[in-house]
């Protein structure tokens, strides 16, 4: 194939309009050589996708209709990774181009939402160290697995695994049990952290898997009420795959049904507060759901079932906004404010300050501004999730230096917020002069439906 053929022309659009959610998976597309031989197309890099988006947007302004239609088809063929490089609506000249890009954006967002509802796939076969398995799980699924809470000998301990493969959560849970470990969600790092087994930890009453979400029944307890029937309180814990970056959970009591397993939901118990509606950001990487119902007396025999439904607001497309040569920013102060656009988000590096800590160490304070194309009441109500976006310094060796602290927001605006990060214990001279801010470039809502079956607790 001639080298001048644009990368997007080498990708054939899938007929079912289902596209992978990351550029690396575009390698599954095929092209036809001059001899009619089917060959695998190489994946496009982020820079190639960016270049193709820019080129094809220019072609949307072509005078010939067939050129414009072809450019639209090729933009769609790039898949959801192209969303990262779409300009803001106000940056696009020409009503026709804006309409076409809006149409393409809407389709790609639907494709990404559809892809996101599917759980990540994980196949674990072979023999590796615990640290090696963590890297492999991260590579396959995009879910970061951290081992820094394990002793070095545990990280190096080899584990053999031979599983057929399947959805991420059940496969990951099975591997963790096989390795004799535990895990917890690290909200700061947007990752799952492996830990030694805690003998005092109690097992959940029930575990259910709902696509990319893991739901556990944490407790089922009676609450006695004087002169009234007792109330059954159920508490569940919901965790999304870290690759999704969960921001907000919403549910209503009306969507929860609890009753005897063989009869639910036909004989669902009466909810304690039928009109209850709830929203909360994830705390520590988990969302706690509470469901209160009033079972009839005497209570039905056998096992009971909780059929639940909720919605998770997630950011499935997280992209790095990278600022290099921070030493230059230190010297010039805030005279320059470099900007990085990722999808519908603009990140501005406002200021970088260095301050001595000891004779050998120093601290860096980095101020940024983050602005989304869309603001409004919903954004303002739940802006706190912006404070939990991942941010780090990066050295020449690629190693991360995690932030030490984040300040209260430095300013608020419609669809925008300013933040200040502190990094301590940096060596002199400063060599980690690259700052990376992880940007949720797309935010969507996903339904989460689950079924938890349990033995009812005994009435006190």
What is the gist of this entry?
By secondary structure, the protein is of the alpha+beta class. It has eight helices and 27 strands.
Description:
- With 460 residues, this protein is of the alpha+beta class.
- The protein has four domains: 7-116, no CATH class; 121-196, 3-Layer(bab) Sandwich (Phage tail protein beta-alpha-beta fold), CATH 3.55.50.10; 206-314 and 446-454, Immunoglobulin-like (Sandwich); 325-432, no CATH class.
- It has helices at residues 46-59, 65-77, 95-116, 130-141, 152-156, 168-178, 326-332, 377-381, and strands at 30-32, 38-40, 121-122, 125-129, 145-146, 158-162, 166-167, 181-186, 191-196, 206-210, 213-225, 228-240, 246-252, 257-260, 270-271, 277-280, 287-294, 304-323, 339-342, 345-356, 361-372, 391-394, 400-402, 405-406, 411-413, 416-427, 434-454.
- The strands form seven sheets. Strands 13, 14, 16, 18, 22, 23 and 27 form a seven-stranded antiparallel beta sheet that branches.
- A hairpin with a 2-residue loop joins strand 25 and strand 26.
- The longest helix has 22 residues, at 95-116.
- The radius of gyration is 25 Å and the shape is globular.
Give the overall form: globular
**How many H/I helical runs?**
8
Strand coverage percent = 35-45%
Class from secondary-structure proportions: alpha+beta
Distance between the termini: 76 Å
- Given this structure, which CATH class of the largest domain is correct? Mainly Beta
CATH topology-level name of the largest domain: Immunoglobulin-like
Outline the low-pLDDT stretches: 10-40
Care to count the β-strands? 27
Architecture (CATH level 2) name of the largest domain: Sandwich
Approximate helicity band: 10-25%
As a whole number of angstroms, the C-alpha radius of gyration is: 25 Å
Q: How much is the average pLDDT?
A: 82
């Amino acid at each position: 194939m001639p080298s001048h053929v644009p990368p997007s022309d080498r990708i054939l659009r899938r007929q079912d309009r289902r596209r992978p959610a990351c550029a690396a998976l575009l390698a599954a597309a095929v092209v036809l050589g001059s001899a009619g031989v089917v060959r695998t197309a190489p994946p496009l890099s982020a820079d190639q996708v960016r270049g193709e988006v820019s080129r094809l947007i220019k072609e949307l302004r072509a005078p010939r209709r067939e050129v414009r239609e072809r450019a639209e088809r090729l933009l769609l063929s790039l898949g959801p990774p192209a969303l990262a490089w779409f300009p803001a609506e106000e940056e696009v000249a020409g009503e026709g181009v804006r309409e076409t890009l809006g149409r393409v954006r809407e389709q790609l967002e639907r494709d990404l939402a559809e892809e996101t509802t599917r759980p990540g796939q994980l196949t674990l076969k072979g023999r590796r160290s615990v640290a090696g398995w963590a890297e492999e799980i991260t590579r396959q699924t995009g879910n970061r697995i951290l081992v820094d809470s394990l002793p070095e000998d545990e990280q190096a301990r080899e584990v053999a695994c031979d599983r057929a493969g399947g959805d991420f959560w059940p496969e990951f849970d099975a591997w963790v049990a096989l390795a004799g470990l535990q895990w917890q969600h690290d909200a700061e790092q947007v990752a799952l952290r492996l830990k030694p087994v805690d003998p005092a930890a109690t097992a959940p009453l029930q575990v259910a898997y709902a696509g990319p979400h893991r739901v556990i029944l944490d407790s089922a307890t009676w609450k006695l009420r004087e002169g009234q029937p007792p109330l059954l309180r159920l508490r569940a814990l919901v965790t999304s795959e870290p690759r999704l970056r969960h921001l907000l959970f919403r549910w209503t009591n009306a969507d929860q049904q609890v009753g005897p397993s063989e009869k639910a939901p036909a004989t669902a118990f009466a909810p304690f507060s039928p009109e209850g509606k709830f929203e909360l950001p994830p705390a520590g990487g988990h969302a706690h759901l509470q469901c209160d119902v009033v079972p009839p007396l005497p209570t039905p025999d056998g096992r009971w079932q909780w059929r639940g439904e909720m919605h998770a607001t997630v950011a499935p497309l997280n992209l790095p906004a990278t600022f290099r040569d921070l030493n230059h920013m230190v010297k010039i102060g805030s005279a320059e404010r470099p900007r990085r656009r990722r999808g519908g988000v603009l990140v501005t590096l406002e200021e970088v300050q260095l301050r001595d800590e000891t004779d050998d160490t120093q601290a860096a304070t980095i101020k940024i501004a983050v602005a989304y194309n869309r603001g409004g009441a919903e954004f303002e109500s739940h802006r706190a999730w912006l404070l939990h976006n991942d941010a780090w310094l990066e050295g020449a060796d690629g190693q991360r230096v995690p932030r030490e602290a984040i300040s209260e927001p430095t300013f608020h605006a419609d669809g925008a917020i300013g933040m200040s990060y502190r990094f301590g214990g940096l060596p002199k001279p400063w060599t980690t002069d690259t700052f990376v801010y992880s940007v949720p470039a797309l935010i969507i809502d996903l339904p989460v439906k689950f079924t938890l079956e349990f033995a009812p607790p005994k009435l006190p």
